[in-house]
TrEMBL record:
UniProt cross-references to InterPro entries, sorted A to Z: ARM-like (IPR011989), ARM-type_fold (IPR016024), CLASP_N_dom (IPR024395)
GO MF annotation terms: microtubule binding
Transmembrane parts of this sequence: none
Gene Ontology cellular component list: cilium; cytoplasmic microtubule
Protein name: TGRM2 protein
High-level lineage: Eukaryota, Metazoa, Chordata, Craniata, Vertebrata
Every CLASP N-terminal domain range: 15-156
GO biological process, one term: microtubule cytoskeleton organization
Length: 211
């Protein structure tokens, strides 16, 4: 397995897209059968795979996106430190790629959000998604953020240091120009208003008229 990993990483460093695909397949295989080997080099593996997400060969790009999903599903919270970088690259694919890649990126983002620490996922979505100037990216981030708040629960997020950023993001999304994004933001605001701490934060970050 150790040799397979070194081989896979060297294939990813190749200029030949077919070899890159083989390398990505190898990493998916190792994630399923020898995850302990990948765990020791998780940072390097994740960096090598993430670098291929923007590959101009759509087959390689697709394969890299799917591989990232496998890594997050397998290693869960061990991937916390990779979330910011990966979310940024995947959200870029949501607006800047063919439809099948957009779909794959959205699905993998769902896997990411489901498996890492909620606060890490929330921060990545707010930083790279809510602030984006692209409608599709904000919409994708809003949908994932809403599902995260629903799943984690408002009370659990209220005591966190980043609670203020979540309140500000929900208020911003609730006034977005896209109706789907707006709907997600408004649903979040409704949920947050039920909690005293979030209610106070919302009143601070959104004008009374808008609220």
């Amino acid at each position: 397995p150790q040799q397979s990993l070194l081989k896979a990483l060297s294939l990813l460093g190749s200029d030949d897209w077919e070899l890159k695909e083989k390398g990505l397949f190898s990493i998916r295989h190792l994630a399923g059968s020898h995850s302990e080997v990948l765990l020791c080099s998780l940072r390097d593996v994740c960096w090598a795979v993430t670098s291929e997400v923007t590959n101009l060969r759509s087959k390689v790009s697709y394969s890299a996106i799917i591989t990232l999903g496998e890594l997050f599903a397998t290693f869960k919270k061990d991937m916390d430190s990779e979330v910011d970088e990966v979310a940024q690259v995947l959200l870029q694919m949501v607006w800047n790629s063919p439809e099948f890649l957009q779909k794959a990126a959205t699905q993998t983002l769902g896997i990411v959000v489901e498996n890492v620490t909620p606060v890490r996922a929330m921060t990545a979505l707010v930083d790279s998604g809510v602030q984006s100037r692209h409608v599709q990216v904000r919409k994708c981030a809003a949908q994932l953020l809403l599902s995260l708040v629903e799943k984690t629960g408002v009370t659990k997020l209220a005591g966190k240091a980043r609670a203020e950023r979540l309140a500000h993001a929900a208020g911003k999304l609730a006034q977005d120009c896209d109706k789907d994004t707006r709907h997600c933001g408004q649903e979040m605001v409704k949920m947050l208003l039920n909690h005293q701490n979030f209610k106070r934060l919302l009143e601070q970050s959104v004008s009374a008229r808008d609220l």
